[in-house]
Write a structure and sequence with these properties.
- The protein has 4 helices and 5 strands.
- By secondary structure, the chain is α+β, with helices and mostly antiparallel strands.
- It folds into 2 domains: 102 residues, 2-Layer Sandwich (Beta-Lactamase), CATH 3.30.450.20; 64 residues.
- It is rod-shaped, with a radius of gyration of 37 Å.
Length: 169
């Protein structure tokens, strides 16, 4: 029964869409699932190496030093073009550290694209507003000039009309 449970656990780890790594108390990699290997472009050759070989060990070091007993962080691993939500915790009895890495790269990229679209939309709205204000000012100027010319013409006609009336008297 126990062997069946262990096989099931191994199968869950092997098929998980999340990268999983297990370290000893010295932060040496003792186990990792296929997804972790894929995320960090590595193979079983890194077994027995420190986690610092693949990434910044600081969060793991804080766990081992007792600063915290678990972390839930978001990190960017530039060499791997990877953005992850990382769940890190200690198995105290086993003196091991577990890291679960959830790939959020596509969500980050979508968020970045959405921010770009928002920025472009705001820029276009500002350009449209500027154009409308300029257009309104031009129309107002044109109306003002037209009114002034019309007023001058009416005054001229009135003056001519008065002088015609006075001349005919």
């Amino acid at each position: 029964m126990r062997r069946l449970a262990e096989r099931r656990t191994d199968r869950i780890l092997d098929t998980s869409p999340n990268g999983i790594v297990i370290l000893d108390e010295n932060l040496i990699i003792i186990s990792m699932n296929p997804t972790f290997k894929q995320f960090f472009s590595c193979s079983d050759a890194v077994l027995g190496r420190p986690i610092s070989y693949l990434m910044d060990p600081a969060p793991f070091e804080k766990l081992v030093s007792g600063v915290a007993d678990r972390f839930d962080i978001t990190a960017t691993h530039r060499p791997y073009n990877l953005h992850c939500r990382e769940l890190l915790y200690i198995l105290k009895e086993e003196k091991q550290v577990v890291g679960i890495f959830i790939n959020i790269t596509s969500e980050q990229e979508q968020e970045k694209k959405l921010k770009e679209i928002r920025s472009q939309t705001i820029e276009q709205a500002n350009e449209l507003l500027e154009h409308q204000v300029k257009m309104a000012l031009n129309i107002a100027q044109f109306l003002g000039e037209s009114t002034a010319k019309g007023e001058a013409l009416v005054r001229k006609l009135m003056t001519l009309s008065k002088s015609d009336e006075q001349g005919s008297e």
